[in-house]
Amino acid sequence: MKPLSKEIRLLDNKWRANQGWPKRLESIEIKGLRGWTGQKLEFRFPIIAICGENGSGKSTILQAAASIYGPPRGRKGKFASDFFRSTKWDHIEDASIRAVVREGSASRPARVSKLTERWRGNPDRPLRAVEYLDLTRTQPITSRVGFLQLADPNLEERGSDTFDETNLRRLADIMGRPYSTVRMSLTSAHPSRRVPIVEMHGSDISGFHQGAGELTVAELLVVDPPDNSLVLIDEVETSLHPRAQRRLIRDLAEICRKRELQVIMTTHSPYILQELPPEARGYILRSGNSREVIFGVSPDFAMTKMDEDQHPECDLYVEDARAEDMLREILVVHAPEEIVRCQVIRYGAASVGKALGQMVEQRRFPRRSVVFVDGDQSDLPGCVLLPGGDAPERVVFEALQMQNWGLLHERTGRPFSQVADACSKAMTGSDHHEWVAAAANEMLLGGNTLWPAMCSEWAKQLSPEEVAPIISAVVETLELGSHLPRRIMAAPEPAPAEPIPSVPEPVATPNPVKQDQERLETFQRSLFDA
Length: 530
Prior knowledge:
Rossmann fold; globular
């Protein structure tokens, strides 16, 4: 996993110490709006990124969050009626937005609802400054209403708001460009329509000729949220290249820590997700007409679910890269014909695996899917345990140590003594997650080279009984089309052969499900007898 940036780590430290953030939106529940049926989201980090396919409901979350707060004195607020309007085609009733908000050390419920014709509960809303930045900020100036008249070269500049040193540095750092000044200029054509002007290398460049990313970030930085505000940003990465996306998240983390802001954003970008810790990454998973919000997902999981180019027949879900190599090598050695029909997807936190397992149990996956959890996890519904009864690193290292490291020295091209010493020394560390890196450093190898080699050497020593639960789960899902692999913890004993009757019995109508089950049991017996 990519290490967290300094800015995110400092933010995390302050958040975990429970220092600050006297105003927090702790959770929100949406019902009766755009397909939401009462799903609840909990916000456990000051910056939250929600991802999912188009139409999954990401913007609805932001709009619901904006609706739950009333504006403090002197500020303009948003109402649910601003976002959720009944139209000729959309009639909204029996809708509600429930939340739990924290103020100081106490938490309390908040709610707005529309049972029939009017939204109710607005006077009782908690007060908080809310900045809602929707996609209108990404529109080119030339497409904004009334802005084309500002392109007249004969206009006079009637004043401007110049970025202070802090915001100038922020824009320069995010975009990686040496701006001298940045200002939002007013002209004689209109008293309030402002045009961003950047000065670079002695020349002014207006918003009419700036890149879309420069314009987007400049107008984002113009927003000056007060301390303890809620900031909502739709599609935060729009028009930005990957480096700028990463820098923007780090900038937001710094401002969030200093002003104790709460930021909720939507995104389709893996670069945004990679900058955030697991608890800050949420994915809206849709299956038919239902949806489920899962927190702790990996960027790989999110991108795979949003990518329509899915040629494999079956998705195999694992926690992380270590588990991926472990499972892949088991299948390469013991089921090579099946592995080419599958793709392995890392889902991230173990809690995500539990949620995915429940979806498998309830047959809510649209594709053939098997969910694997590490052997040190409990027996979870809908999930298959990886072998060994412990974390992948401990299982593989300890098994190879008992085999005197097998042929690992040949696989890595290192002397046996160096392999044995490096791996044994690594196992003395208290954190098994560091064993691979420690051994690889001693052997002058990359961890991505050593670990697959270890998994391959370990997998070839496994017995058919040890791999039967994994192989049978994959085969059953592939061949029977089931989204619920059975938890087969050991290969079944062969059934005793029955005598062949001398007189043929009437032939019954074939049962395809029974035939598929018999083929599976035959395959399992072959594993046991091999």
